[in-house]
């Protein structure tokens, strides 16, 4: 392999990794606050991608308007999801929440099939992002340059909210101890709603980026990204936002490089991700940047 | 919503589902089962074939003096669902013949069940040789992969002047693996050299790693006999990476979704195919194309045409057998010679495979255009 090809593969890996990272942030955030693995997170990607298609094609909004709009709408949809699927179960055992999350995921997928149909739709990719630039012989899609930047920008924005604002302080408090936070007079439902709003709009950003990179939108498009983001979040230390980004990049790069270095193994790239998951759970269950397990359940 | 209301809502949904699934009670009908992927990764094939079968049913709605009733089951593009679908058609619906599935892997999951029940099945488009091998009641309306792979290799060498080829195989599909093998065999025999073999998997969306390593080997063509979604995404990523060599693929490419998703990237993509409107010659084809286009408001496509042919072949066999007995239908089926079907003249062989010609198409200006016809 020449150095050029290798660099090209690294770029491919970073671009895939930043997508995983983007989705993993939202995943890990909801977990951080609620200790809930929101399996419907991946399906929010799908909801966002379809919403964006309709915003751009049906209502002919320019993408500059519709993309932020879709982030807000998906955020609100996330709050709705919480109200319907998770809020009634706040006092129930964790396992009920998990089952409810899986149920919500199936419901969203099948609802999309019934309402929209199973045939993939093409995503209206703005020309700006589709352009390809030549960097010293490396072919880089403009989207590939924007994606890590966007991931970083959203990460910084989120870190700011979590660490510098009142809401963020409440979120961190809730993640440490639900009951005491409530006793302190904090409206937990509001904090959870904000968490879902932020997490879901991040999923929307991820979904639209994903659809721009792989312009094929179908009701099951969120399944694999959702799983991979989950693995990335676990790898980085579930609940840890920076960890999720690190995990996303490691997973993306790892997947691409395994194909690049061992072309015969290409069909095992998903297996690679799951092997990583198993190894992390075996040897370092709290992930790379996770806090040590405390007695809090 | 309270818990009670939720429950009644769910109960209501179940009620609707049962009402829809309730079998029609008419006795003067002959039931033909159809199992196709109406949702999932290859849903476009299933929907096109179902369109074609419906039009064929309109053209010939009766057999043995009875009305034909079609019973459709969705396989969700999944092997296990496909097997379940056939079980249901055989045991619950008591069909006399079965049409489907659209792709080889799923048909191979469904066939053993209809075979055991001695019910004739005709797949419109499952092209892998194993689909009918060693089976008595399994048939198909399409040519098989060895022919398709060979023709693709000859076309690559003679028309595209390719000396080296990169092969990209969807390892999860029997169809793709088969086609690639037959292509490589013939291509090497004709003096070509395969410079790179890489693998993908159905549902993968990122092929940049495979394509970057293909690029390093600088092939004259890429042979990627995969399904339309993967074909389109792959072409797009290949063009983005600056790989501009011709891409050659198989009949799995011929779905409008290829062009919708692939856009400019799939221009000049070549593929071996079963049917092109421009090459259609039989009376049945003319009638079919006219009705199809009037009713569906789009151009007649290959998958629809083959769906119709599977229907016509099965109905012809039932008619000739004069009975709904599986063995008699089977005997009538293998006796079909030079049947003027929608996709051309079809002669059925003892092994369940038809003898018929093939066309080569390419994508030009966002349309599938006819390049040439190859006879067996």
UniProtKB/TrEMBL annotation, chain A:
It is a multi-pass membrane protein. GO terms for biological process: D-alanine transmembrane transport; L-alanine transport; L-isoleucine import across plasma membrane. The chain crosses the membrane at residues 19-37, 44-61, 67-85, 97-120, 140-162, 191-210, 230-259, 271-290. The keyword Acetylation does not apply. Pfam families: BPD_transp_2. It comes from the Bacteria. It is found in: Cell membrane. GO terms for molecular function: L-isoleucine transmembrane transporter activity; L-leucine transmembrane transporter activity; L-phenylalanine transmembrane transporter activity; L-valine transmembrane transporter activity. Keywords: Amino-acid transport, Cell inner membrane, Cell membrane, Membrane, Transmembrane, Transmembrane helix, Transport. One of its GO terms (cellular component) is plasma membrane. Belongs to the binding-protein-dependent transport system permease family. LivHM subfamily. This is Amino acid/amide ABC transporter membrane protein 1 (HAAT family). The lineage of its organism: Bacteria, Pseudomonadati, Thermodesulfobacteriota, Syntrophobacteria, Syntrophobacterales.
Automatic annotation (TrEMBL), chain B:
Keywords: Signal. Transmembrane segments: none annotated. Residues 29-366 form the Leucine-binding protein domain. The keyword Magnesium does not apply. The keyword Signal applies. Pfam families: Peripla_BP_6. Residues 1-26 form the signal peptide. Belongs to the leucine-binding protein family. PANTHER family: LEUCINE-SPECIFIC-BINDING PROTEIN (PTHR30483), PERIPLASMIC BINDING PROTEIN OF ABC TRANSPORTER FOR NATURAL AMINO ACIDS (PTHR30483:SF6). This is Amino acid/amide ABC transporter substrate-binding protein (HAAT family). It comes from Desulfosoma caldarium. The lineage of its organism: Bacteria, Pseudomonadati, Thermodesulfobacteriota, Syntrophobacteria, Syntrophobacterales.
């Amino acid at each position: 392999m020449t150095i050029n090809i290798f660099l090209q593969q690294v770029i491919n890996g970073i671009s895939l990794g930043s997508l995983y990272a983007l989705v993993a942030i939202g995943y890990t955030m909801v977990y951080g606050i609620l200790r809930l693995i929101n399996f419907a997170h991946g399906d929010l990607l799908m909801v966002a991608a379809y919403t964006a298609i309709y915003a751009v094609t049906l209502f002919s909004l320019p993408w500059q308007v519709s993309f932020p709009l879709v982030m807000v709408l998906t955020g609100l949809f996330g709050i709705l999801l919480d109200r319907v699927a998770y809020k009634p179960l706040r006092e129930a055992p964790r396992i009920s929440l998990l089952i409810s999350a899986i149920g919500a995921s199936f419901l969203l997928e099948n609802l999309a099939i019934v309402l929209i149909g199973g045939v993939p739709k093409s995503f209206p990719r703005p020309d700006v992002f589709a352009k390809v630039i030549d960097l010293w012989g490396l072919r880089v899609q403009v989207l590939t340059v924007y994606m890590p930047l966007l991931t970083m920008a959203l990460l910084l924005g989120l870190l700011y909210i979590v660490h510098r604002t009142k809401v963020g302080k409440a979120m961190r408090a809730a993640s440490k101890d639900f009951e005491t936070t409530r006793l302190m007079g904090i409206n937990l439902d509001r904090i959870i709603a904000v968490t879902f709003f932020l997490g879901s709009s991040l999923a929307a950003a991820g979904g639209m980026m994903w659809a721009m990179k792989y312009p094929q939108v179908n009701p099951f498009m969120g399944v694999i990204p959702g799983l991979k983001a989950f693995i990335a979040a676990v790898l980085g230390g579930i609940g840890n936002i920076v960890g999720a980004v690190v995990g996303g990049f490691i997973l993306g790069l790892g997947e691409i490089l395994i194909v690049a270095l061992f072309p015969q193994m290409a069909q095992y790239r998903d297996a690679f991700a799951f092997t990583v998951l198993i190894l992390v759970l075996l040897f370092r269950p709290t992930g790379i940047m996770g806090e040590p397990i405390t007695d809090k359940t | 919503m309270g818990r009670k209301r939720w429950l009644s809502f769910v109960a209501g949904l179940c009620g609707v589902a049962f009402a829809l699934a309730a079998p029609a009670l008419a006795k003067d009908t002959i039931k033909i089962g159809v199992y196709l992927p109406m949702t999932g990764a290859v849903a476009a094939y299933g929907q096109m074939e179902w369109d074609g079968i419906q039009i064929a049913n309109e053209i010939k709605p009766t057999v043995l003096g009875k009305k034909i009733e079609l019973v459709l089951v969705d396989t969700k593009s999944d092997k296990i669902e496909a097997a379940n679908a056939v079980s249901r058609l055989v045991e619950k619906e008591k069909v006399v013949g079965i049409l489907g599935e659209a792709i080889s892997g799923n048909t191979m999951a469904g066939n053993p069940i209809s075979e055991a029940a001695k019910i004739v099945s005709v797949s419109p488009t499952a092209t892998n040789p194993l689909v009918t091998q060693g089976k008595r009641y399994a048939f198909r309306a399409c040519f098989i992969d060895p022919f398709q792979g060979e023709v693709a290799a000859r076309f690559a060498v003679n028309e595209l002047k390719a000396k080296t080829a990169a092969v990209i195989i969807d390892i999860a599909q029997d169809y793709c693996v088969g086609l690639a093998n037959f292509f490589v065999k013939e291509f090497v025999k004709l003096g070509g050299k395969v410079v790179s073999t890489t693998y993908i998997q159905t549902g993968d969306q990122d092929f940049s790693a495979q394509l970057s390593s293909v690029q390093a080997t600088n092939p004259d063509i890429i042979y990627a006999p995969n399904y339309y979604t993967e074909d389109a995404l792959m072409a797009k990523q290949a063009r983005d990476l600056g790989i501009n060599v011709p891409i050659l693929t198989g009949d799995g490419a011929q779905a409008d979704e290829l062009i919708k998703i692939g856009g400019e990237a799939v221009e000049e993509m070549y593929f071996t195919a079963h049917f092109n409107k421009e090459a259609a010659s039989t009376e049945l084809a003319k009638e079919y194309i006219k009705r199809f286009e009037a009713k569906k408001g789009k151009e007649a496509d290959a998958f629809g045409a083959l769906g119709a042919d599977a229907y016509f072949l099965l109905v012809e066999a039932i008619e000739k057998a004069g009975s709904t007995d599986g063995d008699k239908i089977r005997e009538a089926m293998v006796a079909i010679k030079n049947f003027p079907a929608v996709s051309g003249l079809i002669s059925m062989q003892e092994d369940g495979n038809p003898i018929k010609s093939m066309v080569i198409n390419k994508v030009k200006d966002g349309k599938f255009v006819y390049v040439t016809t190859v006879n067996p």
